[in-house]
Amino acid sequence: MAELTSAPWTAEQTKAQYLAIITLRWRIFRNMLGRKGGKSEALSWLFVGLLTLVIAAGLAAGIGIACAYAASEGKYGLVTSMMWGIFVLSQLININLGSPGTTFDPTQLIRFPLTVGRYALVRLFFGIISPGNVLVVVLSLAAAVGIIVGNAHLWLVALVGALLFAAVNLLFTRMVFAWVDRWLSTRRAREVFTALIFIASMSVQWLNVHYNMDRNHGRHHRHHATSTTPDSVELGMTHVTEPEKPSPTASRALLYWDKARPYFRLLPPGLMGDSVASSANGQPAKAVMEEAGIVLYGALFLAIFGLRMKAEFAGENLSDVANAVRTPKRVNTEQRVASRTVPSTTAVQGRPVGAIQAILGKEFLYLRRNMGILYGIVAPLVMVFLFAGRVTSNTSSEWVYPAALSYALLGIVPISYNAFGLDGTGTQFYFMAPVKMRDVLLAKNLLNAILAAIEMIAVIALIAYLIGAPSPVMLLSSVLWALATLAVEMTVGNYRSISSPKRIELQKTAQKQANGVSALISMGILLLSAAVGWSLMQLARFSGFGWLMPLILAALAVVAGFIYWQNLGKMDAYAFERRDALFEELGKKS
């Protein structure tokens, strides 16, 4: 990358280093497009990027209009609210989607003649172009444009403040991801962090639902408060009662917000809104100081990020193996002899019967350690609990059961599209051991089926508790639809697990369970299957024969199960032909 000489280091050499890293990234990306599956992966990125731009355009238009209204009417508290919305939205997107995976491990750069500062700068821009980061820049500029449209005299403070706010958000995201990766280097820390994320996200949903229920309850009472009574009609007047007081929950929320508001104004979103208000009120010095406060936050986030990069530059290893504290276990002689006399598997007609059980047990260990999968399993249950009762208050509950099962499968089906992601380089042992790939995938699919069964039973029981038991026809139809969909997803997922695997490292934050193309395929199959189920529901309704839907779905489930079983027998030859690419992909570090 650069020559080691006794001469002083020059700016041209630093420029050459950065140029070499950029060239390396471009060549790796170009070579990736040339390998098998690379073009489809690029198309998936393009699709997600276009979808993100469409969503960003809609949000930008709404934020721009709101800020234009705030600037024209002098309601600058609305600008602060928009800034907080941008900040929270970008962090939620970064948590759920994560930063894009790099094409090679950037810590390899410490072997080259880099200083800590140059290494930190390179690492700062690795993975900075994520959907959440792009969104915060676009929405911040949209807010600035809205403020300028509403009050053209504020163009300078609005534009500078928006750029500073976007830069601070980027630095905050990079700082958080760097330190979270450090904290998640141990399994216990991963469990605690995922539990906190789960509690926080579900608490937000609960507050939203509870607040809306209180608000609707208040509207209901206000509607009756202005209603007419027989006596009032006879008198020719309307009976008006006192407006109802806010609910205790809303009152407590407002009280807490009033106490916390002064502290929130000292944070970057509050400083951005206050700087615009100060400039509009003829206080330019105060506006400059408030935007300088945003700069100080950026410097603080950059310094904390630099501390993490300094530890990386010193060669810190965050792998589970490096951080594992091994203590020798004392095993007495009788236990050692007993363990030798118990066979690990039982052979029947030359086939290892215990292989499926052993792999299934290993998959349960992976499941216990992968908090991302557990989050995807538990979150749908909580969301069903929060929303099932509300959506059926004004509409028919006929479609709630199949819709809830469809939503529950969202956390299950991606697992089958990357069956070897957690095995990593250990996948090679499947090809060296006396076990068929058919049995390996069958054991992994059994775990998916068990999780799906648990999820389905929990969802059905939860909805039955909230809105009542379903009819036998709807219950049977929903279960048959889920079985047919799961069989199709696992059939396609087995092929994608071998042709397009993705290594999953538990110590990395917000990793997807499958690559982009596999995720789009699984979502497409689920949507197509949902469309088929909805069509059958409409067909049964118009025909007047209620049992038509479960009969057709039973036939589809049998066909899907037969196709799955037939393709399962082809996995040995399919995996053997692609074993080299499989090992190469699973051996990469993200």
UniProtKB/TrEMBL annotation:
This protein's name: ABC-2 type transport system permease protein
Positions of transmembrane segments: 42-71, 77-99, 120-148, 154-180, 192-209, 292-309, 372-393, 399-420, 441-467, 473-495, 516-536, 542-565
Keyword Acetylation: no
Keywords: Membrane, Transmembrane, Transmembrane helix
